[in-house]
């Protein structure tokens, strides 16, 4: 039965599922759970994490492989989602702390995501990390630059593969 509130209810359900997905992938990364990370991404996904660029599956291998951080902790802030049918865009603020060897690393910024709804629900198709503070030792030039105007990546609603990734 269609009613005037059904669209608003569906939008709320979609946004809740997207927030859960963003939290689930962060939890899986913090725990080094390769299968849970992969399950959050579409098969044809792309993740641009600055120094790492590749598919969601390759990102899971990178996070869980040798030389990865021995400890990792994400704290997620607010998310803003724009749902358009089976597509959605989102911006989620984050802070992370971790250990890489004997060094403590920290950073904060935003995940700028493009999502696609599949038979199994929402999944990440394209993620860009837009740091507001780059961890010590990281190359700021490897990331999409943040800006305090409408040129910021959160406004462009890019889809994968319709984008040239930053290099």
Measured between the Cα atoms of the first and last residue, the distance is 49 Å
Number of domains: 1
- Overall body shape: globular
Helix content: 10-25%
Number of strands: 6
Identify the CATH architecture: Roll
CATH topology: Nuclear Transport Factor 2, Chain: A
Mean pLDDT: 92
- Summarize the main sheet: 6 strands, mixed
Secondary-structure element series: HHEEHEEEE
Widest beta sheet: strand line-up: 2-1-6-5-4-3
Give the helix tally.
3
Radius of gyration: 16 Å
Q: From the helix content, strand content and strand pairing, which structural class follows?
A: alpha+beta
**Strand proportion:** 35-45%
Describe the protein's architecture and organization.
- The structure is a single chain.
- The chain is of the alpha+beta class.
- The protein has a single domain (about 5-155), classed as Nuclear Transport Factor 2, Chain: A (Roll), CATH 3.10.450.50.
- The protein has 3 helices and 6 strands, in the order ααββαββββ.
- The protein has helices spanning about 5-30, 35-40, 55-65; strands at about 40-50, 55, 70-85, 85-100, 105-120, 120-135.
- It has a 6-stranded mixed beta sheet with strand order 2-1-6-5-4-3.
- Strand 3 and strand 4 (about 85-100) form a beta hairpin.
- The longest helix has 26 residues, at about 5-30.
- It is globular and about 55 Å long.
């Amino acid at each position: 039965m269609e009613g005037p509130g059904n669209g608003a209810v569906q939008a709320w359900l979609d946004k809740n599922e997207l927030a859960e997905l963003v939290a689930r992938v962060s939890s899986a990364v913090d725990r080094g759970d390769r299968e849970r990370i992969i399950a959050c991404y579409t098969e044809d996904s792309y993740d641009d994490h600055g120094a790492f660029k590749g598919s969601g599956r390759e990102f899971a291998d990178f996070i869980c492989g040798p030389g990865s951080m021995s400890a990792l902790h994400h704290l997620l802030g607010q998310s803003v989602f724009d749902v358009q049918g089976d597509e959605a865009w989102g911006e989620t603020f984050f802070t992370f702390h971790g250990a890489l060897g004997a060094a403590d690393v920290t950073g904060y910024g935003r995940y700028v995501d493009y999502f696609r709804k599949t038979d199994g629900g929402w999944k990440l198709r394209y993620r860009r990390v837009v740091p507001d503070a780059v961890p010590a030792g990281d190359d700021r030039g490897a990331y999409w630059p943040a800006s305090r105007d409408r040129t910021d990546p959160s406004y462009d609603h890019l889809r994968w593969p319709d984008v040239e990734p930053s290099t």
